[in-house]
Amino acid sequence: MRFSNFFFPKISNLYFRSKHKSSGNFLEKVDAQRKAKYPDRSKLLEKVTVLLGYDGIDDSIDNELCEKCNGGKDDFDVSLACKRFPSISLGFFPPVELYDEATCSSMDEGLLASQLYQQFLANSSEPKLVEPDSLYETWTSLCPGREDGNSSSLTEHMHSGSPTLKPKAGSNLEFHLDEPVSATTMLETQNTAAPMQDILDRSINCIPGLTKRQYSQLENCGFHTLRKLLYHYPRTYANLQNAEVSIDDGQYLIFVGKILSSRGIRAGYSFSFLEVVVACEVMQNGSTSECIVDETESRKLRTIHLHLKKFFRGTRFTYQPFLRSLESKHKEGDVVCVSGKVRTMRTKDHYEMREYTLDTLQDEEDSSTCGKETLYPIYPSKGGLKPNFLKDIISRGLLILPPNIDPIPEVIREDFKLICLRDAYTGIHQPKNLAEADSARRRLIFDEFFYLQLGRLYQMLEGLGTKLEKDGLLDKYRKPELNAVLVEDWSTLTKEFFKALPYSLTPSQLSSVSQIIWDLKRPVPMNRLLQGDVGCGKTIVAFLACMEVIGSGYQAAFMVPTELLAVQHYEHLLKLLENMENRQMAPSVVLLTGSTSSRQSNIIREGLKNGDISLVIGTHSLIADKVEFSSLRIAVIDEQHRFGVIQRGLFNSKLYFNPASLKLESAKSDDSSKGDNIMAPHVLAMSATPIPRTLALALYGDMSLTQITDLPPGRIPIETYIIEGNEDGIEIVYKMMLDELEAGGKVYLVYPVIEQSEQLPQLRAASADLKTISSRFAGYNCGLLHGKMKSDMKGEALRRFRSGETNILLSTQVIEIGVDVPDASMMVVMNAERFGIAQLHQLRGRVGRGDRKSKCILVASTPSSLNRLKVLEKSSDGFQLASMDLVLRGPGDLLGKKQSGHLPEFPIARLEIDGNILQEAHLAALKILGESHDLGSFPSLKAELSMRQPLSPLGD
Ligand SMILES: Nc1ncnc2c1ncn2[C@@H]1O[C@H](COP(=O)(O)OP(=O)(O)OP(=O)(O)O)[C@@H](O)[C@H]1O
């Protein structure tokens, strides 16, 4: 290896890493060494060894080697030197004669860049840290313009046709440097190969100029791959040219400016404060941003002073060392971005900020970007890594992104107007303007949703045997409205049960049943979410689905989250079955809950195992291992968001053998169908908390969605009142309750807690209020219902309320789910501000279920919460309210812990506002899978999908 091959990269590496200004001079010197004599070279080497952390050349290189050097031999063995310089690794350094004049002059810079780039890519997969740096630095030094973030040269080189790299057999990304190939081959390689997306999943040690220390710091903070690093998106952008604003008291504003002073001031015996003064140039009213480009127009700028103040109380905060350390955190001359609430001060153009965020953009020496009208990304710090450090590393990471890293086919990008992935990364981290940041954001959000949808649908298709089945499934998603079975084609049992109903189904209920039965008739396990507003009549739809399955000789299981609900459903179903004309046809139905005696449970389990029992209604106990079914064909999961994903998935393990009666259906499908007839049951999940469609798609991308959009006829809208819970307010509420009771109504009184708590004395408690309410409404009976009561007592309390033995039921939110007492006509919710909007809507849905006019009174304990609750006064549309809750409180609160825990993490997308992108991503995923069920035609997409979080079979 030639002296200069080893020498130049080593020094440039140092230069790059340390931004060491003095070492920069060495680069020029090294360049001059092309023609220099060996004595001069050894002098230079000596200087460099100091930089490398060694004492001197004698200490570093064998005497023999030095002799060789001094002896003027041109090609001394550098590997000997490297033994003494452990940080030097020769590794895969390309045999490029950088300083051989003959080769150098004939070598095209583009060729060199590409070679180095490819070599660099190949090397970066090695666990070594040093070699990529030297390669990159040699490369960047030869391609000026790379360091300023302009990566276009790489793009040009990659496409210029000059590179002479040839892929190794069986690999798209590994290249032999020593086998020159034609320009056309390179282009072909680029065009036909899968995109070079795997660079994203390389270790961050592929980033040029990364020291071992930086590498381990980044690794420790979770930045294992380039992808992870690029996913560290800016928190916000600061416009380095402050926009024209009129500054009013109390406004929340963001400014960029220079620190003028930072002082820690002792203001009293136990009181001190830090004051940082920042000068910001803002545009005068009336001038436009273009004006400022012309420097002569700078008079149109005015300077304002921000006084950032932080106060400290306590004697320990008044000591000088503490105050000095505070001061020193902010250096004079640093360019900073400040955001916070401004307060006007007496002096003109001086403003105070007491709650603020301050981000240092540049230090004093580097003022290159100051005053320019560009967006400056502000990063959140992570694990102690400073935002500016991350910004620097990210911009270095961006430099090595090749142009073709995008796995999403161009046609999809065009259809959905997406920018390419590399532009998206650049756009989010280094946008020239907000529009660019916005399209980058849109593209990255699309990706987050797209791979989720693609993964889930792909998994579903994988589970199917034939092409016909797969096409059928995709069609089902594309045109769900076409998938329905007419009533005439329902099973005899379903028709008999349908006839026995005391009411006719609403159009929406009818079409839901038809869609579900269509699914049940298919050889593919259904996975459907049935949702509808509270009280819309989902239960009867599920019962009909169960009847259809039982009518074809199978079993059904109906799981609910509470015993109360299980009993209610069980009794309701028995009543409906009693009405059947042909009682002989009624299936055997049992109730299995935690309170079922063990003797009874054994009998039920036996019945389920041998097939004597057709339908079981129960709680979690249904998914216990010991509960075996002879042929479970449908599992209904009511209030599904109360169950974890795992619990819901457990029904999938209750496989059943598809006996001869199913052969007919199997025969209809392709012969190559998975013929062993062992199937997972159909799953029908129901949700009373209407989840906005976007959220449902994100949570259950693979689920079909059925919505009941109307309410049973004759329902009278509930009147909702929001009342402040002061003395007068409570009196009004009691008066309204009395009126209702006198008119023959029944009242629910809902409390946030069971017992009074010392920590939260403002909360009214159900148990504690029982006495007060009983004495206040002396002529009426009061009942109590809460989660801590034994289940038979809960059942009894509800029974008494239903039968009219009690007129007022004091309860906690246990009644929120599914409790159905049609003649309950008033609900009062105490401390209503403690509940979410969607939750209050659910509670309110416990009244107004019959033909009696009902009222709901929400009692707010603070005047400030009245406004938030007002939305319930105006709207009774559960979907609208759930969407509102989603925006106000985020998906976590809306879904509750169990379910939101299973919501995939979206680093950049916000479900509450990016719903339309999710919808597009869903369509794109369907389109891709429609083209190629196994993604065989899209190898890059398949590779990307496997790189992203693998999904468990439960979608967990
Ligand atoms: N088509 C209909 N016509 C008249 N009443 C109906 C109809 N469908 C259901 N109902 C009645 O409406 C009430 C509410 O039905 P159901 O309990 O099924 O509602 P839900 O959607 O499950 O409500 P929740 O969200 O409270 O669980 C029940 O008393 C039921 O008998």
Automatic annotation (TrEMBL):
Pfam families for the chain:
DEAD, Helicase_C, RecG_dom3_C
Helicase C-terminal domain: from which residue to which, for each copy?
A: 717-887
**The keyword Magnesium belongs to this UniProt entry's keyword annotation:** no
The catalysed reaction is: ATP + H2O = ADP + phosphate + H(+); Couples ATP hydrolysis with the unwinding of duplex DNA by translocating in the 3'-5' direction
* Coiled-coil intervals: none
Reply yes or no: does the keyword Flavoprotein apply: no
- Kindly list the GO molecular function terms attached to this UniProt entry: helicase activity
**Keyword annotations from UniProtKB, A to Z:** ATP-binding, DNA damage, DNA recombination, DNA repair, DNA-binding, Helicase, Hydrolase, Isomerase, Nucleotide-binding
Tell me which EC number(s) this protein carries. Answer: 5.6.2.4
The protein's name: DNA 3'-5' helicase
Species this chain originates from: Coffea arabica
